[in-house]
Amino acid sequence: MHAIETDARDRVVTTEAYAPYPVSPTPATWHLRRTEVPTPTGPVVVHHRPGPDPLLLLHGVAGSWSTWTPLLTAADGVGDRGLVLVDLPGWGSSPAPAHPFDLDDVAGSLTTVLEALGIATVDVLGHSMGAFVGMHLAVVAPLRVRSVALVSGTTVATAAAARHPVRALRTLPAFTLLRAGLSITGEAARPVLRALSRVGLLPLLAAPVFTHVRRLDRSVLDAFVQELRPTRFTDAARTAAGYDLGRWRGIACPVTAIAGRDDVFARVSDLEAVRELVPQLRTVLLDDCGHFAHVEHPDAVARELGLT
Boundaries of each AB hydrolase-1 domain copy (predicted)? Predict the structure, then answer.
């Protein structure tokens, strides 16, 4: 096993029980109300509840609002705080716009959602692609964002891999091969994934993403299959390739990055790379954790973000 070098400023957390909570698609458990908000790019489905110091939770490319529910369980529903869990355009129950994924459009949709709910400012939690979206929201709407937490965020290494796919076969092979495969198969990949799930082979495909795929509750893999959107994935990768990460230097709010030591979609080196762009960054490295920190170790994530 190769040793992974970490910056001395990274807080390294030895985690506890692995993936202890299922994914739950029942919004009533957390007193969430489902609302469909008209936005300039089309309707966006939101599960939300009123309360002080609201949290805006943004899922990744194989997620929806429900993939945050293990974290909600770990954080006791996040107390009495307000919650806004968005199905980003083209994911979950939100229909896809007619045009490709665009960060400005997504940020505009989120601003419209917050305005519709009467929310002035939020703390943003973003997973994977949702972390990228959260950072962009902090760039274009800084008065709305009190803080950003990147949970297994795809940031610098992913953007570089999207720009240079041949080189990325060495630096970020899992992301690069998945992108290539989905680019070829398109939406036909979804029935294939469902078929693999029915015959019990899905863990083989999902194994690189999770540190201990065989320990996952079935609901986690079911959500992974249901929520992966191949076309939107490739669109998001294309957007990351063209994005100027230097824009993040203008972010003034507190930013926390939580990463898994075993993440194959990002690199531990991303923590230092993001810190070079955002000097106020606080970093947390989780042992025994892949690309879904909020599912694999929700108790640690909740604790490190001050949600418990």
Answer: 54-298
pLDDT digits (tens, 9 = 90+) for 211-238: 999 999 989 988 887 887 778 778 888 8
pLDDT tens figures, 175-217: 776 666 767 676 666 666 666 566 565 666 677 889 999 999 9
Domain map (residue ranges) of the chain: 11-304
Contact 138, 253 (CB under 8 A): yes
Distance CA 93, CA 108 (A): 18
Task: Please compute Rg for the chain using Cα positions.
Answer: 18
CATH number of the domain at 11-304, out of 3.40.50.720, 3.40.50.1820, 3.10.450.40, 2.40.10.170? 3.40.50.1820
Q: Which two tokens stand for residue 164?
A: 């240079």
In terms of Cα–Cα distance, which of 169, 173, 129, 175 is closest to 151?
129
pLDDT band, residue 1 (cuts 50/70/90): very low
- Per-residue tokens: 43: 């309707």
